[in-house]
Every structure is written in structure tokens, then in C-alpha cells.
Amino acid sequence: MAELFDDIFKESKIFANREVLSPHYVPHNIMFRDKQMQEIAKYMTPSLKGERGRNLFVYGKTGTGKTSCIRSVIEKVNGLPISKARISYINCRIYNSRYRIMSKIISDYLPAYAKKGYGIVDIYERVINWIEEDGKILVVVLDEIDVVKDLDDLVYTLTRANGDLKMGGITIVGISNKVSFKEELDPRSLSTLYENDLAFPPYNSNELAMILKDRVGVGFRKGVVEAAAINLAAALAAKESGDARLALKIISKAGELAEERGYDMVTAECVSDAAKYADEEIAYEIINTLPEHQQLIVYAIALLSMQGSRYKRLSEEGDTYLFSGDIYEKYVAVANSLKKEPKSSRWYRKYISDLDMQGIIVSYESGKGIRGHTKLIKLSYQAEKIKESIEATLSKEGSG
């Protein structure tokens, strides 16, 4: 039986340090983001001095370096000998409600009060009192802020706190993949924001190649990755979305394939095969972290896709397209079955546009002759897998 584990402890001929290939790894030198780092530092400077600064919202597609840059700046701030700022970094995928986020702040800075079952009012008052002790500035960094379920309540609470504070203040730094997320805020919440916006552009092919070359130099054994493999991985990721995370996933998966096949080198062929796996893995990760109602819409599309479409686009045999109106009806039924208030058709159309932009679905206008002008939609990935994945997510939320 011991030989079953031989491969686990055998030294890899391909990899030297897999950690640097992880999307969660924050490099010491973040390439091609000097301008954005300087902007973040500039916007955070008032907080370091104990002054109330403007809130900051950072936008950009997945894999454009937003989180890495913010976390790098936080590390530098925490290393300063004198600073009036206290930073609470919060992953909103995990802490996805106002109560959980306020509890996380308590846990970060007032651990003696954590896990005592206080209500939101008590937690709020304790945070206010803690800030007023010495007039500090609390910087609340909300990564993937758009997935917070009661975002209006959260934004209103954090921004209105500045009116209750006699000394000190709260500044929000929100990170989002969607430029349009603020449009979902209630006008009451929106009116309390006093913010700067900072956009992160996608990486181009040359930038991705340089990033990969840098990581490959540490993550793989010397000379095992062909230059053509690096360039192909960069080109594929640039064509898809300019996503560094996708590029890293492709080159990492290519290394695994080379190892499985007994190759001494990671070739362009390995990269080409790896791209199919990597794109799908990232798609399922994105789907599982979509805002609640977007996830329900994708679930409705998956259910209808498995039942079969009422219309097939003639020019692409085998591609199953669905009527947008049918999807909306199914979404409403799914939301009602889960005792959730369905969004209006206006919001539904906006969500469809967001899903299309992220590559989760493909849509096009039908033109005349098919229910007049209507939108036809199909999933970009396997309906069965998407259904299972979302059901697992919904099950976790139900049990939590």
C-alpha cells in the first residue's frame, strides 16, 4: 500500500514552486501597474494622516491585478511606523452581508467582543466607540463588493457613520469586476457616497508574456518551459479577456499535463490542451461567486437548456439557443420557489448583458420573423455541470 503514495513525495521534474503560480499569490513586484499603485496610495494618504478621505472604487475585469495591488498597498501601510489608519480587508465572497462584514471588523480589532452574539446595533456602536478613542480612520476594503446581499444597508451604515463620529472616520475601498455595480444601489445609499473611481485595464499579450516569464522563472524548474509555450499562453489569455489569472492557470495546467505525460518540457501542445481545462475551471469559479440573482438566471438557463430549446439557429447546427422571455419566466419561477423576490425585467436585461460580457452566455438579436425582435441566448459551458455547481452553492447558503 505504501507505494500508492510514492508519486506524492517524488520530486517534480517540472515544478519548482507551485505557490507562485497561484492566483492568490501576491508578488513583491506587480508588473505594469505602477500608475494604479500610485493612485491607490494617493487616495489613501488622507487616511494615514487621520483625515477623512473620499471613498475609492476600483474596477476591472477578473485577473487585471486589482486585489494584488490593493493588498500590496495594505502591506506597505501596515509597515509604516506611524499611521492613523486601521485597515480591515474583507473578502465579500465569504463575508457577504452587512452583519458578517461588521462582525469581521469587530473580529479584526475587538476580538474580545467577537462571537458573543451581539446584534448589528451593538456591533455598530462598539465600532464607533473604538474609532472615537483616538480619532483613528477605519479603512474598510471590500473585495468583490457587488456580491454583498444587502449592499444598500451596508453602504448606508458605513457612510452615515461619519455623521455619528465626533472624531475619526470610516473610508470605503470597494473592489468590483463590474463598472456598473453602483447602478444597483438605492438613490438613498448612492447619495451618501463621496468617491473616486479607478479603472484597471486588461493586460495585453506582451504584458501577459512578461508576467508569465517572471512567474515561470520561479515556479518552474530552469529551462523546462518553452518560450513558445509562454507566448501561446499569453496570447490565448489576451484574446479571451486580458486575464493574468487565466494565463497563470493555463501555464500551471500545462505543467501538470507535461508531468502526467512524462515530458521533460512544457510545450505549446501542452498549453493548447491546458487552455480548454483552465477556461472552464475559471468559468465555474466565476459562476459560483456571481451575485445571487445572476446566479439564479444562469441556473434557469441551465434548466431550460437541459430540457431542449424551442429554436435552433440554422447557421450553427447543434447550438441550442433560448428565448430571453422564456428564460425570464423560468428565472421568476426559480426565485419564487426559493422564496426570493425576483428582479424586474429591466434588471434582468442588465444582468443578461453582464453575463454576456463575462463570457458565461452568448446572445444575439434574432431579427424579424422570430417573435419579432427578441434576444436569443445560449450557455457557453455544459448545462449539467453548471446546474450541479449552482445547486451545491445554494445548498451551502441554505445550510449556513
Describe the structure.
Helices cover 50% and strands 12% of the residues. The protein has 400 residues and is of the alpha/beta class. The protein folds into three domains: 34-199, 3-Layer(aba) Sandwich (Rossmann fold), CATH 3.40.50; 203-287, Orthogonal Bundle (Helicase, Ruva Protein, domain 3); 291-399, Arc Repressor Mutant, subunit A, CATH 1.10.10.10. The protein has a five-stranded parallel β-sheet, with helices on both faces. Strand 6 and strand 7 form a beta hairpin. Helix 10 packs across helix 11. The relative contact order is 0.10. The model is unreliable at 312-317 (pLDDT under 50).
Number of strands: 9
The CATH architecture of the largest domain is 3-Layer(aba) Sandwich
Q: Do you know the CATH topology of the largest domain? A: Rossmann fold
User: How would you spell out the order of helices and strands?
Assistant: HHEHEHHEHEHEHHHHHEEHHEEH
What's the CATH first level of the largest domain?
Alpha Beta
Structural class: alpha/beta
Mass-distribution shape? globular
Short précis:
This protein has helices at 6-9, 34-48, 66-78, 98-109, 120-132, 151-164, 187-190, 205-219, 227-240, 244-260, 268-288, 292-307, 324-337, 345-357, 383-399, and strands at 55-59, 85-91, 137-143, 169-176, 195-199, 311-312, 320-323, 361-365, 375-379. The protein is an alpha/beta fold and 400 residues long.
Features:
single chain, alpha/beta, Rossmann fold, 9 strands, 3 domains, globular, 4-stranded antiparallel beta sheet, Helicase, Ruva Protein, domain 3, Arc Repressor Mutant, subunit A, 5-stranded parallel beta sheet, 15 helices, 400 residues, 50% helix
